[in-house]
Design brief:
The protein is mainly alpha-helical. It contains 8 helices and no strands. The two termini are 38 Å apart.
Length: 209
């Protein structure tokens, strides 16, 4: 007998993992120090703030997925979601190191920075690959035309993120402009590429989107 899936359990587990990732960031602040000592280490707060709001951004994307898919869940979605949560837990740490290196808090060689860019971009790529595949799966299972077109849009939208992340990995691997952060600036391409995709999609489905 096929049992119905409980979206509440999936979202509860997901929220727990996001909360655990935030907890790991707080623990890494070393709050055992006095307030005056912490005040002298303002860079810690900047690093934590950036990492925290990136995590909140990812949680928001995750939250919106379940609203747009109207709660569709199957074992494939659960598998992609589980991989997504695993990568998010890993993602927090290279992001923190990357921010620290930009702020000059951590000394790192050009080769080490190139490796860090690659690990960061790999995490970025895997996260949005999971989102893209989750939307793709929900699109294939949707029975509503307007909803399926919306899901297809977001599947392709996040596929652009995957492509840009892959390009950043390639640039970092070739050590092109590492000193100037070129693998990071590659992400600026997300703006125009996503705009062009949205404009094309709006033109193709003017009465649906």
């Amino acid at each position: 007998m096929k049992l119905p899936h409980n979206i509440g359990r999936v979202e509860a587990l997901s929220d727990g993992v996001f909360a655990f990732a935030a907890t790991l960031m707080v623990v890494s602040l070393d709050l055992n120090e006095s307030w005056l000592d912490m005040a002298d280490k303002g860079l810690n707060l900047i690093t934590f703030a950036v990492s925290f709001f990136v995590l909140i951004g990812l949680w928001t994307v995750h939250y919106n997925y379940f609203r747009r898919s109207e709660g569709y869940v199957d074992y494939v979605i659960i598998a992609f979601n589980s991989l997504l949560l695993f990568v998010i837990l890993y993602y927090v740490f290279p992001l923190k190191s990357l921010i620290n290196s930009w702020l000059g808090k951590e000394r790192i060689t050009m080769e080490g920075l190139a490796d860090l860019f690659q690990w960061y971009s790999l995490g970025f790529l895997l996260i949005f690959l999971c989102f893209s595949l989750m939307y793709r799966r929900a699109y294939k299972k949707s029975k509503s035309l307007s909803r399926s077109i919306n899901l297809l849009f977001y599947s392709r939208h996040f596929a652009i993120y995957v492509a840009v992340g892959g390009l950043s990995i390639l640039v970092a691997h070739l050590e092109i402009g590492i000193r100037y952060g070129i693998p990071g600036f590659i992400y600026v391409l997300l703006g125009p590429l996503c705009y062009l995709h949205a404009a094309h999609f709006q033109k193709k489905y003017p009465n649906i989107l």
